[in-house]
């Protein structure tokens, strides 16, 4: 009897344990599958509840989206494309100079009448896609050499003559020259020796020659005395330029024909765009078709009254107004200058 009772008790306990195990047990595999199903459902559920099916979800997923900013193509366009027109010349210039670690104040001393005038009238060159000059007025050969070495020069054969320019400018000029040839036209240097790259010494030589001629002319007219001329020539070059511009305000002009500012005939020493290796004087400047070809390749006239002079900017012509430049049309053609 005792053994039978013990067996019954053991069987009863076994039955209870079995029932408890059945009620609590949940297969791990089934829970994992359920979890995976739920995770996939979350992954594919569109944020926009109006999207009805997976095909639409796929279309949204494949839309043009910037993977970093998670913005559309329109939103991820470079800021400059959106603000160019609103920024004007100074805003675009600030942005362009920053690429080279420069600022407007580090490039131009606007308290200087010479630098201010160069900046306001001929400042388009600072917007170039190539390396912009790091100052409005170089004051020594060493400053020029340092800049030209940093910017880098490339030799280009234009019309059978070798000229030196910044690499991007040289490549664009070669393309323009080849384009002209295909159209039965030619692009050649106006003067083989100085149509492109120039040294500081060369710009000083051109300036001094022009000043000397004007001094002789105005002395013969009784407008300048020998004493005034001696004083003018003894001034440091920056002061001399400022003094010449002051005399011109009184009608004593120093240009080639003594009828307008000297800056229309020759750049002040150290301010020539040829120093930055971004300027080219073309013999065929009077041909509208040639000017159109030059413009197509990023070359524009940016110095009023210097008709043969082209500056490499690297932009399309229809982009220039948005950069803060305005077209000035004269009887001698078109020029692009800062819209200040």
Give a verbal description of the structure.
With 340 residues, this protein is mainly alpha-helical. It has 2 domains: 89-198 and 272-338, no CATH class; 200-264, no CATH class. It has 12 helices and 7 strands. A 3-stranded antiparallel beta sheet has the order 3-5-4. The chain has a two-stranded antiparallel sheet with strand order 1-2. A two-stranded antiparallel sheet has the order 6-7. A hairpin with an 8-residue loop joins strand 4 (299-300) and strand 5 (309-312). Helix 8 (167-182) crosses helix 12 (288-296). The protein starts with a helix and ends with a strand. Residues 15-83 have low confidence and may be disordered.
Rg is: 37 Å
* Uncertain runs: 15-83
Using the alpha-carbon principal axes, give the shape: globular
- Beta-strand content: 5-15%
Count of the domains? 2
Strand element count: 7
SSE succession = HHHHHHHEEHHHHEHEEEE
Query: Average pLDDT value?
Result: 82
Q: Assign the structural class, choosing from mainly alpha, mainly beta, alpha/beta, alpha+beta, or little secondary structure.
A: mainly alpha
Distance between the termini: 118 Å
As laid out across the biggest beta sheet, the strand order is 3-5-4
**How many separate helices?**
12
Q: Major β-sheet, in short?
A: 3 strands, antiparallel
Q: What fraction, in percent, of the residue positions are helical?
A: 40-55%
What is shown here, in short?
The chain is 47% helix and 9% strand. It has 340 residues and is mainly alpha-helical.
